[in-house]
Amino acid sequence: MSPQAPGLLGEIEAAARLVYQAMAPTPQYFWPLLSERAGCEVWVKQENHTPIGCFKLRGGIVYLHHLREAYPDLSGVVTATRGNHGQSIAWAARRLGLGAVIIVPEGNNPEKNAAMQAHGAQLVVAGDDFQEAAEYAAGLAEERGLHMIRPFHPWLVQGVASYALEFLRAAPPLDSVYVPIGMGSGICGMIAARDALALPTRVVGVVAEGAPAYADSFWAGRVMTTPSATTLADGMACRVPDPVAVGVIAAGAAAVVTVSDEAILAAMRHYLTDTHNLAEGAGAAPLAAMLADPDRGGRVGLVLSGANADRDLILKALNE
Q1: Calpha distance 166→161 (Å, rounded)
Q2: Are 256 and 214 in contact (CB under 8 A)?
Q3: Is residue 6 scored above 60 in pLDDT?
Q4: What is the pTM of this model?
């Protein structure tokens, strides 16, 4: 174990204790039908079983806990999202009695929008994509005197890493694990937990073909942006990566691969038929990547990071 690992493990365990004050650990299961389909032993971390149906809640709980400690008189926060990060912040803010303003782009998932409002957030629609929504959120934070929560931050990663710590401790030793990448907290949390436990598990990041900014950045060794991010997996629709996340992924991941929207839809169907679990696009992407990997084998972990697909996308997956 490296000299840094004990401190890192302590940080993640402390974050996990905060998470468990608000929600229970999620399960991880071996799925025989998925394993038959893949030709290897497949374990799934069921982050679709959190109170908001995705892993992001863990980061929101930890971030807002630390924020409230640092600024006890804080009245509210603002952030931009395609849905799951926003649900996390809205849920955690309501628990602490904070106001939350959530900025989403035009055409965002209507069911995620409704969920954020049900958690008590003020929803504002601005911009054509996530990046434009984030830029609007930054301006609104200054205008209203709100704390701006960016989608990648060490506190978010610490909270999110609790899912990876659970997975790597509870499942048998994993040869590889496939993790979707939106803005990077999920895969950076996995890398942190893997390193803290001094495990040899290969971490493979997954992005959509239509939103390849993190894959481009990984292979280039520097931040690479894209002019658009077009994919049905809205949780992975990033065109401007976070530079800190890029550095962590470049140092700690074995690869970052792309998958097509068609492969994602097929993976959504496989989750339904083989496990009877619902997966949104980003949640299904690791399964799509694993099935396309000619080098898959041994014992494989998949992160089913969310289940918040809207009705139209579910029907599209079923009817393809």
Answers
A1: 9
A2: yes
A3: no
A4: 0.94
